[in-house]
Each structure stands twice: as C-alpha cells, then as structure tokens.
Amino acid sequence: MTHDHDDYGDAGPMAKLPVPDDVQEAIRTLIRWSGDDPSREGLLDTPARVARAWKEYCLGYQEEPAYHLSRTFEEVGGYNELVLLKDIPFQSHCEHHMAPITGKAAIAYMPNERVVGISKLARVLHGFAQRLQIQERLTAEVAQCIWDNLQPQGVAVVIEAQHGCMTGRGVKTPGVGMVTSRLIGCFLDDSRSRKEVLSLMGY
Ligand SMILES: [Zn+2]
Asked: Which residues of the sequence carry a binding annotation for Zn(2+) (predicted)?
C-alpha cells in the first residue's frame, strides 16, 4: 500500500511553503542526534514536513492577538453581567522542551459597557497559545490582553493542561493536569464575584 503526502496532513495552508536548506539540515541533525538515519526512505521528506508543522504550531507570532478585541459592541442594553466561555480546547508548546501542551481554558470577563463577539475570546487564546510558552505566562497574557483592550470590571482566566514534557519523558506522569489562573479587577478584589466566576467555571 502506498501513501501520498496528503495522508500525512501536508495538504494544509503550509503545503507549498518553501523550507530553507539550513532549516531542513537542522532537523536532519536532530534526527541523527535522536539515533535514526535521516537518509532512510521514510525520513526523506520529514525535515520539510517538520519545518512546515512548526510554522503552523507557531502561527501566533504572525498575529497581534489584541486585534481580535478591536471591534466591540457598546450597545449592550445595559448588560453588565458576567460573560463566560469555557472548555475552549487549545494546543501550545512549552518553551523548555518544545513539547506539546494540550488543554482547555475558561475565560470570563465582567463587561463595562463594551462587549466583544464571544468567539474572539478563543481567538485571543489561540494567538498566544500558538507560540513557545509556559502555561503561567499564557494564562497571564490572555487575561492582560482582555483587561487592556476591553477595559472591563474584571477578567478571569483558568487554564488546565497536560504537558508532553511531563507525560512523555522525565517523571512520566500521564493524566496529571496543571491548573493556572489569573484574576484581575473585581474577580481579584471581590470575593463574591470570585466565588461566582470560579464556580461557573467548575472550580
Ligand atoms: Zn517542557
């Protein structure tokens, strides 16, 4: 049975992206370092595929996440209650091992006259996640971006994720999740608001 390249997911937006020789050579070096032979048939196209995959994992460097919050709706009919988007799946990569971080996020804010289309919160998350990250900074960057751009009464971000560098190497603890949170404004200052948002998020 033969496979064409599409079987390996090479039909995406990056399919035609040229990969410079030095980038391919770096990946060949890594394959050799790992103990395999980059000149064997199954690995011949791997350097170009890996390089294109990394461009895609790191698409966030090519965008400014705050852009997604630039179009707001001010006619909210006096709705100044909690807005919450939860169980948003995301993938990122840790900056220490370049291993996958997979998880879900809950993002909430208490508007102050301005609201944004709900899908935009997920776009902000992906804009920061598609970079080399640590989970704590990802959590803080998402919260700060919403705080700075929507100027709400409060922002709460909770991220729960598994780290490939923990599940696949080192201490090898599959199934262990790490939870990080960042609370700003009313969610930090007012214990009733904090309890309400965390319980709606399921924490
Ligand atoms: Zn790591």
From this structure: 94, 97, 165
How many other C-beta atoms are found inside a 10 Å radius of the C-beta of residue 15? 11
Please write the tens of the pLDDT for every residue from 5-61.
445 556 677 888 999 999 999 999 999 999 999 999 999 999 999 999 999 999 999
- Rounded to two decimals, the pTM is 0.90
Count the domains in the chain.
2
Residue 13 domain boundaries: 5-57
Ligand 1 centroid – CA 93 distance (Å): 8
CA distance 42 to 55: 22
The reply to whether 34 and 118 lie within a common domain is no
Question: Which of 186, 97, 103 minimizes the C-alpha distance to 139?
Answer: 103
Shared domain for 42 and 91, answered yes or no, is no
Q: Are residues 136 and 104 in the same domain?
A: yes
pLDDT digits (tens, 9 = 90+) for 114-123: 889 889 999 9
Measured in Å, residue 135 CA sits from the centre of ligand 1 at 10
C-alpha 27 – ligand 1 centre gap (Å): 19
User: Which CATH number do you get for residue 30?
Assistant: 1.10.286
Give residue 137 CA to ligand 1 midpoint distance, Å.
Answer: 13
Q: Band of the pLDDT at 75, cuts 50, 70, 90?
A: low
How many angstroms separate the CA atoms of 118 and 139, rounded?
18
